[in-house]
Amino acid sequence: MSLIEIDHVSVTFRAKGREVRAVEDVSFSVDEGESFGLVGESGSGKSTILRAICGMAPVTAGTIRIGGKALPSPRGSGFATQVQMVFQDPYASLHPRHTIDRTLSEPLAIHGLRDSDARVVQALQDVGLPPGFRFRYPHQLSGGQRQRVAIARALMLQPRILLLDEPTSALDASVQAEVLNLLSRLREERGLTFLMVSHDLAVIDHMCDRILVMQHGRAVEQMRREDLAQARMTTPYARSLFDASADRMLG
Description:
This protein has 251 residues and is of the alpha/beta class. It is 37% helix and 28% strand. It has a single domain (2-250), classed as P-loop containing nucleotide triphosphate hydrolases (Rossmann fold, 3-Layer(aba) Sandwich), CATH 3.40.50.300. The chain is built from 9 helices and 10 strands. A 6-stranded mixed sheet has the order 6-7-8-3-9-10, with helices on both faces. Strands 2-1-4-5 form a 4-stranded antiparallel sheet, covered by helices on one side.
């Protein structure tokens, strides 16, 4: 069953008196429990789709459905219990003056959930951080540790879907692999559905069951992981992305 449906969606911004068509007539679906990747160069519209799902970008045509239901605008309070997003820069996405404890407790307080102390400790353990990290500030953590906190925060309300916007591109290569393996483990343990954005086919190959290649706001080609692994692309643009990532994928 399709949990996420993007049905002929377009996103148009108006800037300095002109229209910018960030996404044009894109359609795809993501099954429950699947990890689906959006790949393309900067400006291809892939991150805009994630923002459109969250209500952070204007959908000017088409429909977005979660669990078969069209998303309301603005998003209701129940949206956060279904869908959460992990951003590219873990330092920018965490409040610099809030302790990790406050950052993780806040979603629980907003939604009236109890036992926050136990939930925060468990969340830290789930992402491989000791309980003592509760009372640290973001600047006291490494980039990888901050991204683990961002993932823990996204999971506090036990959503079904994680939107992952270049979640490791700001991290060192060795830390990237740790975070990607953490995400894979959490997906398997919790039955999560991933919609993941990356400019790097090597990352998408590691994480995703199916892939949509985007260019200039349009869907160019969709393929399965096996097609990617065997270099079965049908468009020159998808081939160029594969060639650029081939060494890392083979490694």
